[in-house]
Amino acid sequence: MVITGEVGLGKSLVLAEAARRLATRNWENAIAKSPKRGKEHLKNTKWAPIDFDSIDPADSKDGKDKYMRTRSLSFKKMLDVDLVKDHTELHSGPMILLRFVGTSRLSTSARDVMHTFTQQVVSYYSTLPEDVPVEYLALKDALPQSLSRATKNKPLFIILDGLDQISEQDAGHDLEWLPMGDSLPPHVKLLVSTLPDANTYKVLNNRLGKKAEYVTLKAFAQGEREEMLNSWLSRDKRQLVPQQRACLLDASGKDPSVLLLRMLYERSLSWMSTTTVAEVGRLPESTEEAISLLLTELEQMHTPQLVRLLLGSITASREGMSAGEMEDLASSSNEVLVALFVWWAPPMARVPPLQVVRLLHDIKSYTSEKVGSGMHVVFQWAHRQFQQQCEKWYLPDQSSKEAMHSALADLFSGAKSKRDLPLTVHLKNGEVKNLPGDRRLPAQEPVLVRVAGNPALYNERMLKELPLHLMGSRRFAELVDLLSDAEVFEYLSQDAHTPELASYWRTILASSPEANPRDAYMRMLDNLDPDVKKRKQASLARGVGIFVGEILARLADAEVFMSRAVNSCRDKVGQELELAKGLDGKGKVLLVQGKYADALEVLAASLEIKKKILGDKSVEVAATMHIIADVQQKKGRYREALSLYETSCSIRRELQGEDTRDVAASLGCMGVVHKKLGNYDDALAHYEQSKAILEIRLGKENLTVATALMNIANVFTYQGKYKESLAKHEESLDIKTRIVGWEHPEVAKSLGNMAGVLEKLGRLDAALEKNYQTLEIQIHKLGPRSQDVARTRKGIGLILGQQGKLDEALDQLNQALSITLKRVGPRHSDSAALRSVVADVQHKKGDLQAALNNHTEALSITRYNIGEGRKHIAVARGLRGIASVLMTMGRVAEALERYREALDQTIASVGPEHRNVAVLQDLVGVALGRLGRYEEALEMHSAAKSTRQGTAGSSMEVASSLVYTGDAYTKLGKYKEALQSYTSALNIQENYSKGKPHPDTAGTLDSLGVVYKKCAQYKQALEHYHRSRDMLRALYGEDTMAFATVTMNLANVKQHLGLYEESLELHEQALATKIKHLGHDHQEVAKSLGNMGSVYDRVGRLDKAIEVYKQCLEIQKTVLDGRSLDVARTMRGMGGVLKAQGKIDEALAAYNESSDITNERVGYKHLDSAEILYSIGVVLQVKGALKEAEQKFTESLRIVKDLVGEDHKVAASALRGLGSVLAAEDKNEEALEAYSRSVSITLRLVGRENLDSAITKHSMSALLYKMGNEDEAKKFHATALEVFDKVLGDDHPWTQNAKKGLGFSLTD
Question: Is 1037 exposed, middle or buried (0-12, 13-18, 19+ CB in 10 A)?
Answer without folding.
Answer: exposed
